[in-house]
Amino acid sequence: MNSKPPLNSLPLKSRFKSWMRAVTQSSESDPSATSKHRAATRWLDDIHRALWTRVSASALLALSSSLVSSSPSSAQTDYPAPPPPSAYGAPPSLQGTTAAPTNSTYGQSVYGGPSAYGAPGTTAPATVTPAPTAANPYAAPTYGGNVAAPPAAYPNGAYQGQTYQGQTYQGDAYQGGTLSGPLQGSFPSSPSLAPPVVNQPTVREADLIIQGYPARTGRLMFGGAVNSDAGVTGQITVDERNFDISRWPTSFGDLFSGTAFRGAGQTFRLEAAPGSDYQRYTAQFADPNLLGYLPISMSLSGFLYDRNFDDWDENRLGGRASFGYRVTPDLSISLGVGGQNVEITDPRVNTVPELNSALGDNALFSGMASLIHDTRNSPLQPSRGHYFELSFEQTFGDYEYSTFEAEYRKYWLLRERADGSGKQTLSYSVQLGFSGDETPIFENYFAGGYATIRGFDFRGASPVINGVEVGGQFQWLNSVEYMFPLTADDAFRGVAFVDFGTVEQDIEIDTDNFRVAPGFGLRVAIPMLGPAPLAFDFAFPVAMADTDDERMFSFYMSAIR
């Protein structure tokens, strides 16, 4: 037997359809119309109550939500609040553990306040999270850039996040270790706050690629020179300033391509200077750093000199080895040994015992030491600074004697143009020398000529015995010179000078032999002839010995290309 379900048990949609059928059917003539109208009235009341119940429930739910979100003292939930997010992760030793932070600080601000979390030299990446809303009251606070905003409030002011059990952070010490790298010493001590850790390289490296081409370091020069002391000489020079004695050629191509014997910064020089009165042939090798890395320089040289003096002819063949050490950029010391054979031939007279005893071959060996302090701004034309040298040499062999020499030069810049040209310079120089009693005649001191005392012939201001210039064991030579420009381009300069001093057979100063020669001169700078200017000087002796030979004009000319 079929029975209809009660109307209240049907869904709202089904009850509305049943009500509509009842209304439409009530318009038909039916003896039971009154009962159907009553049933429809009951259905309408049921629908009204159902709708009212749902609307009321929705309004109450919305009102309660707004009241809960606007009350700061009401408890939101029993769930623990999440910890503040950070761009820096906790150290691996703290992951998975908990700790209850106390009132600690980052720098000078309270944790949770507006302080910078970034370590020195780093910038934390910006992390943006949604702010708490009524629908999501548990959202984490937003940390913009590298500054932390205050986190969400916790119930009753208590923090219910993670805790670190039994682990503390004291200054830079953490779990028995230390923070290395740039974070060391950058965080204050805190008993319960884990330090932020940033992994970054402690050494920053970058590749630097330099491409270059070697400049010209070798020179082949042909030239000549004329001066009043040595006559006319020619000159052929091979000079390599980037020599490498260990880089031997592997083929004939290496010899002509310039790759053989080059690249170590050493110096190699060959020079031949044949002349009318003077001949010089030298070979020199120098290494600025011994063995390629030691701060000691080494110089090896060999020489052959031949000179025709007025009273004899002299030929020297020998070599020298020296080692130097630069104490400061201006101060250097050196030690050396040398040996030579000196041959004296063709004496002009045989009435001088000192000359007769030196005829023939004479073997000399020596050890030497020197100290040099040089602050000049240019070795050829200085205008500032000074040059000071002390040297001592002990000679043995066929003769045994000692030599001590000192030289000092001082330069003062009196005036110059704004562009550095037109320099006016005052200079003073002094040479002092002593030698032992057994010094041979060819090793004595001599004076006279453009390099010592101008106004005299070469060696013409020296002691004389029986018409032979024999020199002496003591010298004291001085010069005061003032140089000034004559043209705007400094190609021509004028000089005014006074040379004075003496050379004596014994260590003394005899007023009868003291020489003084004032004068003036001209300097001509020709770049194509070399860096040294041409010198033309006129000197007039006002004090001299009776045996001296005068020469008013002296000059030095050279041409090297």
What does the model show?
This protein is mainly β. The chain has 4 helices and 23 strands. A 16-stranded antiparallel beta barrel has the order 6-7-8-9-10-11-12-13-14-15-16-19-20-21-22-23. Strand 1 and strand 2 (109-110) form a beta hairpin. The N and C termini lie far apart (139 Å).
Cα Rg:
53 Å
Order of helices and strands: HHEEEEEEEHEEEEEHEEEEEEEEEEE
Helix content: 10-25%
Low-confidence stretches: 70-77, 86-129, 139-155, 157-183, 185-192
The quaternary organization reads as: single chain
Gap from first CA to last CA = 139 Å
How many strand elements? 23
Main sheet: strands, sense, barrel: 16 strands, antiparallel, barrel
Structural class category: mainly beta
**In which order are the strands of the major sheet placed?**
6-7-8-9-10-11-12-13-14-15-16-19-20-21-22-23
Number of helices: 4
Strand content: 35-45%
Shape: elongated
**Mean pLDDT score:** 76
What's the helix and strand layout?
Blueprint: H1 12-25, H2 33-70, E1 105-106, E2 109-110, E3 169-170, E4 173-174, E5 177-178, E6 218-227, E7 231-243, H3 252-257, E8 266-273, E9 278-287, E10 296-308, E11 313-326, E12 331-345, H4 353-357, E13 360-374, E14 385-397, E15 401-415, E16 424-435, E17 464-465, E18 468-469, E19 474-485, E20 492-504, E21 515-524, E22 534-539, E23 553-560
Helix pairs in contact: 1-2
Summary tags:
single chain; about 550 residues; mainly beta; 16-stranded antiparallel beta barrel; three-stranded antiparallel β-sheet; 4 helices; about 10% helix; about 35% strand; elongated
